[in-house]
Amino acid sequence: MAWFKRTDKGILTPTEAKREVPDGLWFKSPAGKIVHTRELKNNAYVVPEEDYHVKIGSKEYFEILFDHNEFTELDKDMESADPLKFADTKPYPKRIKESQAKTELKDAVRTAYGKMNGLDVVVACMDFSFIGGSMGSVVGEKIARAIDYSLKTRAPFLMISRSGGARMMEAGLSLMQMAKTSAKLAQLDQAKVPYISLLTDPTTGGVTASYAMLGDFNIAEPGSLIGFAGPRVIRETIGKELPKGFQTAEFVLEHGFLDFIVDRRNLKSKLTTLLKLLR
Predict the structure, then answer these.
(1) For residue 89, is it left (φ>0), alpha (ψ between -120 and 50) or beta?
(2) What is the average per-residue pLDDT within 81-97?
């Protein structure tokens, strides 16, 4: 019998995200600028002139970072189980299968190794389109194994985070991934293998409280939402209005939690320069 079962009607759990990469031939930015999707792709999915960073997933990041989009994916067939027999508006296995069919992903993170401007690199990239980029057992295990591969090959490790936090359908098992990935990163640190953490919009919850903030360098894309609890929850908890720009990458940088902010169009060259300096 499931340890949790939602019986009240009309309570919805919004875990499915809107499609990240724009459909069709044209994309309209939040400010109303119309851009051809080919132009958007050639500009690293950043709206020209406006500099708005379109939300993208692992497919697009791998295209941007890996030389000639050539890489070898790690643990690509790993899937979530249902140890808690969880059901809310639908059974957890059904939610997983629907997310896999909709996104063509196995879970909320993809890991791979390849060359970036000729340098060996291991990349783990989260996909928000898969149950809100939530951190479940598969996410933690794939990141841990990617770190193991970095340890084995001594290739630098890049983590690209975009997540709503822990996966409620796995409860404590999800939270355990915070400790597991942090312990693996400690091994990476002891071996003196570089770890760079890239925080994108949004990076929140248990992901922020663990591997996303443990990089040798913590960097972010412009305008990204970065925090633990959301602004509404904090506002209601403390009973005060929050500062302007609260939890944006720029605000977090100003208060010392980031090393720098990088435009996605310069991401590959900046990372290459940084890794050469560390090497």
Answers:
(1) alpha
(2) 94
The torsion of the CA quartet 153, 208, 59, 122, rounded to 10 degrees, works out to -10
Tokens linked to 248:
């944006």
Q: Which two tokens stand for residue 229?
A: 């609890």
Residue 132 counted as domain residue:
yes
Do 209 and 174 touch, CB atoms closer than 8 A? no
Number of domains in the chain: 1
Angstrom distance (rounded) from CA 28 to CA 169: 34
Q: pLDDT tens-digit profile of 94-142?
A: 999 999 999 999 999 999 999 999 999 999 999 999 999 999 999 999 9
pLDDT per position as a tens digit, 145-155 = 999 999 999 99
Please report where in the chains the tokens 């690293």 appear, as a residue: 44
Residue 90 included in any domain: no
Residue 66 lies in a domain: yes
